[in-house]
Design a protein that fits this description.
This protein is α+β, with helices and mostly antiparallel strands. It has 7 helices and 8 strands; from the N terminus they run H-E-H-E-H-E-H-E-E-H-E-E-H-H-E. The strands form 2 sheets. It has a 5-stranded mixed beta sheet with strand order 1-2-5-4-3, with helices on both faces. Strands 7-6-8 form a 3-stranded antiparallel beta sheet.
Length: about 170
Amino acid sequence: MPTDFLSLFAVINAAQVPYVVVGGLAMLLHGIDRVTGNIDLVIDLAPGPSTDLVTTLINAGYRSFAPVDPALLANEAIREQWRLERGMEVFSLWDSTNRRPTVDVLLACPIPFTKLLNDSVIVTLGAVQIRVASVAHLMDMKQQTARPRDLKMSSGSACCNSEEDP
């Protein structure tokens, strides 16, 4: 399993693409024991930021799992078509060098991106800063998925070991 997620965030941070980590890695970075093999991101899906993320990842060696042009992520009508007709909840990109984890960009999020971003925290690992959703937002998102493992986790208490963003 590819584990070099720090270099992925170094690349995204260098491109100054706003993002918030959610899902298993976010839980892990908050000190909640959770194994994950991918990185779930919420981004501003407007054409500029989504195009910037796709370009950054493609230039870093990532490729789309779906047999579509990854630039289409910037098109709201296409994203909705993917969700309705293909049942896609995320747009997945895999690392062709096989060193870094798969990136799953959420196609829809129950919490607006600006709210997630404003309430997020920064976790610093080595020289890399990672923007992570707040524990409250993670718990809310887990409850809304209604998966048994997520409902179990969201009913427990969370320990947060990250620093608040100044």
